[in-house]
From TrEMBL:
This is Protein ApaG. Residues 70-105, 105-140 form the UVR domain. It comes from Nicotiana attenuata. Residues 148-275 form the ApaG domain. The lineage of its organism: Eukaryota, Viridiplantae, Streptophyta, Embryophyta, Tracheophyta. InterPro entries: ApaG-like (IPR050718), ApaG_domain (IPR007474), ApaG_sf (IPR036767), UVR_dom (IPR001943). Transmembrane segments: none annotated.
Amino acid sequence: MQSLSFNLNAGTKVSWPGRFNQGDGSKQQIHIRGNVKMFRIMACAPEMNSGAESQSSSPSPSESSFLSRSQTYALLKQQMEVATKSEDYKQAARLRDSLKIFEDEEPVLRLRRLLKEAIAEERFEDAARYRDELKDVAPHSLLKCSSDATTLGIRVQVRSVYIEGRSHPSKGLYFFAYRIRITNNSDRPVQLLRRHWIITDANGKTENVWGIGVIGEQPVILPNTGFEYSSACPLGTPSGRMEGDFEMKHIDKVGSRTFNVAIAPFSLSKVGDGSDTFSDGS
């Protein structure tokens, strides 16, 4: 298993060569916010046991590329926003047309757009119809690809993304990576002991996965610090959902009882939801 670990201060930027834009060797950056002291990057690989923390040798450049259709869509939206703010209306119009073509090729994106337009125009009967169609096409598509929940001062943020380079739709394999940030906003140190995932595919098939710690560790998270890691989940359908909990305990007092920290539901979606970052809200 390949990994990189850093001890960082707030405001630090970490860069490495990547293919986020045009494959030109540009740098990808991670911005460390707050007081996250440890950051870990794991190399992910598909396993038969869905939701298990992945272990593998370093992936090839094509496998490690995160430039999926969902990220292309998000990039087009960002570029259109920039063009609009800079009053480059010709470019904004071109990007708008490109987005519409992109959306028309993806039923979920098209229905999301129509639903949003119907709500904005107060055409509520149409909105209800589009919402029902969306539920039929992709049952989990109305759930965001991120979640944020706090239990007893322990905040768990999750973000998922579809990995096109490792997926084989013709073989019924859709590969999703997810990144988790755990922040201890309480005044007591905690240790993460076990994980529990509930994974549901688009057909309603549910799998429960239990494991010791995460990525082979049982990290101790001090007050006002955090722990962040990445893992992956192969799925047999182009959409689904994950949720679960971490079993933790306070380690500042002998005999402390364990408690469960919620991981709120989030979507696994081939087309994403147009966002690729954690929420910065506190």
